[in-house]
Amino acid sequence: MTRPTLAVHKFSSCDGCQLQILNMEDEILDLAEVIDIAYFLEATRATRPGPYTISMVEGSVTTEHEIERIKKIRDESKILISIGTCATAGGIQALRNVADADEYANIVYPNPEYLSYLKTASPISDYVDVDMELWGCPVDKKQLLEVIVALLQNRRPVLLQSSVCMECKQAGTICVLVAEGTPCIGPATRAGCGAVCPTMGRGCYGCFGPQDGANTDSLSDILTDIERYPGETERLFNNISNFAPAFHEAASKLKD
Q1: Torsion of the alpha carbons at 115, 121, 124 and 125, rounded to the nearest 10
Q2: CATH number 3.40.50.700 given to 5-152
Q3: Contact 114, 58 (CB under 8 A)
Q4: Exposed/middle/buried for 126, CB within 10 Å: 0-12, 13-18, 19+?
Q5: How many other β-carbons are positioned within 10 Å of the β-carbon of residue 213?
């Protein structure tokens, strides 16, 4: 019996989401018995060409070459999953979308004329159809495992549908926004991180992207009243998930 194949691809990113796959440790050994990991350069140089049953893509599209490459990956993949905030919303690279990419290049690199890049950093879905998105910076390894297992079992993955606030409640974490007046966009951010930041006493800054149906207008009104410095709320929405439409719109309204 032929095993389904898995390919893991890297685009512009820090590799953190690929490392989450490797961090599955014991689980990935079990998966390797039922799925053929055919392409995963972070783990092995040995590769096999597509087509692939499942392709997971980390990172945003930031070069012309990456545009062509993601189209090729889409063509050779039965199921395409973007993993992590870079792949789903452009990630930290998308800060260039609200700034001047050329100015950044001139500041960072001594010879920017050798660079080849797009003026914007975009999620994978801007260029090809994506079958599923897993948010997070980095993506949650439990969600990764659930998705792979669910696809192997031909069922719908069971993923969290709530906001970070629900994770705070489940962990018994006191609300930093209500109790301490700490700016936090957890009410508008999708669950999946385990409420790491509020549990450590700091506000959520939205690395898992906007929760479906998030009321960013109401949250913006609350946060602007308790800002510790001018523009803090705008900067929270303009952070790691800044190019996600809901957060981008919220930041734009505050800027105007």
Answers
A1: -140
A2: yes
A3: no
A4: middle
A5: 8
